[in-house]
Design a protein that fits this description.
By secondary structure, this protein is of the alpha/beta class. It contains 13 helices and 18 strands. Strand 4, helix 3 and strand 5 form a beta-alpha-beta unit. Helix 3 runs parallel beside helix 4. The structure holds NADP nicotinamide-adenine-dinucleotide phosphate.
């Protein structure tokens, strides 16, 4: 029998336990597909005594996850701890430096340190794989890196955070406000106790920056993702969007061209006939537009023990296959790190598009005229305007409008003209409209 590929698991939470269950449940099938057994030899987490619902007795226990890669009984370390730095990063560095392959589900670490780790993996000629880090169980990294490898990718965008999509879907169905739905999502376990990474768009930005690097062959640049979350959305925005023929989704969007690398995570109005408008609940979806393939749509479960474990173990099977046949170790970002283009962030001002603008205003004469004048002076023309009635006891009124297509800089200029106006009771909300 072929030698097993020996695996160390760092982290035994949702994903780690999912990996143990999958490797056990599909053992025979995995061995046939990989051409050799995949055998977990050692595991590590913080608390050795914690009951995890799986039998850990077949595996050795290592208290210090950082040295897993240095053990003689380990060929690959799977990092499922989380956090951009700390023990996850230390463990990943020592693993690669020890000449062992690394598989990780950790998007925060890859978004911040992916290039360093990829360069190290090249130097040590080991695999670095992170399919589970982007969109959980959806094989989108494999899809871009391999299936679409022959294409220039013109644009990549999608729904990259299941928690936000779940909250938006419930807001849409129930007409309830954000804070209310978030509290319920937390109680049901769909949102973390500290939801900031999800609802502020940071988690989606981590994933977008990884996708962009692979799609465009550019150096990973998380810091320049223009990021906004869903916390400012009101039930009334969703209702207005609906009346105009749209749903609201948190969209991560990237393209690369002569203006530079554009990366943005923001709630968008999505036309109801767009495929992403039908992505509901905790589902994720990624669209990539290749110059020869045309539009590719990847959709599925973006999180959860089973789907995430599916992506982790697929990476292990790849490593088992390639090391068995003596194959090349694929580059983590689809090409050597030195080949990735350092592209400056693209300014957004020249971008053409339509936008939804929402103002919370004081209920008094002349407010609408003031907004209309600012838009006129900035050269923004209005496609449709909705003025809602009084919004509760505060006496505020909601004014929402959709602009005609124009440069984003014009909308920014209109908002600048309105800055400091005492007619507005909060900063205006701008949502871009996803065009086909
Ligand atoms: N959950 C998902 O659906 C999902 C999807 C895609 C990607 N991911 C990513 O996968 C990774 C793991 O997520 P998860 O949901 O499985 O997390 P989790 O349930 O919180 O599990 C984290 C594990 O790491 C261990 N750990 C934490 N700090 C440690 C430390 N300082 N030293 C040693 N072990 C430590 C914990 O040990 P104890 O159990 O002993 O406390 C726990 O077993 C994260 O990077 C996450 O972003 C998760």
């Amino acid at each position: 029998m072929a030698e097993p590929l020996r695996i160390a698991l760092a982290g035994l939470g949702t994903v780690g336990v999912g990996v143990i269950r999958l490797v056990e449940a599909n053992k025979a099938l995995i061995e046939r597909r990989a051409g050799r057994p995949i055998a977990i030899t050692v595991v590590s987490a913080r608390d050795r005594t914690r009951a995890r619902g799986v039998d850990l007795s077949p595996y050795a226990w290592e208290d210090d996850m950082v040295i897993l890669g240095e053990r003689a009984d380990v060929d690959v370390v799977v990092e499922m701890v989380g956090g951009s730095d700390g023990p996850a990063l230390a463990c990943s560095r020592t693993t690669i430096e020890a000449g062992k392959a690394l598989v990780t589900a950790n998007k925060a670490m890859i978004a911040h340190h992916g290039l360093e780790l990829a360069a190290k993996a090249e130097e040590h000629k080991v695999a670095l794989k992170f399919e589970a880090a982007v969109a959980g169980g959806i094989p989108v990294i494999k899809g871009l890196r391999e299936g679409a490898a022959a294409n220039a990718i013109e644009r990549v965008y999608g729904i990259l955070n299941g928690t936000c999509n779940y909250i938006l879907t419930v807001m849409e169905d129930s007409g309830r406000d954000f804070a209310d739905v978030l509290a319920e999502a937390q109680a049901k376990g769909y949102a973390e106790a500290d939801p900031a990474f999800d609802v502020e768009g940071i988690d989606a930005a981590h994933k977008l920056s990884i996708l962009a690097a692979i799609a465009f062959g550019t150096r990973l640049d998380f810091a320049s993702v223009d990021t906004a979350g869903i916390t400012r959305l009101r039930a009334a925005d969703i209702a207005q969007a609906h009346a105009l023929g749209y749903v609201i989704r948190l969209i991560g969007m990237a393209d690369a061209g002569s203006e530079g690398l554009f990366q943005r995570v923001q709630p968008h109005l999505v036309p109801m006939d767009h495929p992403l408008a039908h992505v509901d609940g905790a589902t994720n979806a990624v669209v990539a537009e290749g110059n020869f393939s045309g539009r590719l749509l990847f959709q599925g479960a973006g999180a959860g023990d089973g789907p995430t474990a599916s992506a982790v173990v697929a990476d292990l099977i790849d490593i088992a296959r390639s090391t068995r046949v003596g194959g090349e170790v694929a580059n983590a970002f689809s090409m050597p790190v030195a080949e990735l283009e350092a592209m400056a962030p693209a300014p957004s001002g020249h971008r053409l598009g339509r936008a939804y603008l929402r103002f919370m205003v004081k209920d008094r004469p002349g407010v609408l005229a003031e907004i209309a004048a600012a838009l006129r002076d900035a050269g923004v023309s209005i496609e449709s305007l909705i003025q809602k009635g009084r919004a509760g006891e505060s006496g505020e009124v909601m004014v929402a409008l959709v602009t005609h297509e124009g440069p984003e800089s014009a909308v920014s200029e209109a908002l600048r003209l309105l800055e400091g106006s005492d007619s507005l009771s909060e900063a205006p909300l701008v949502l871009h409209i996803l065009e086909d």
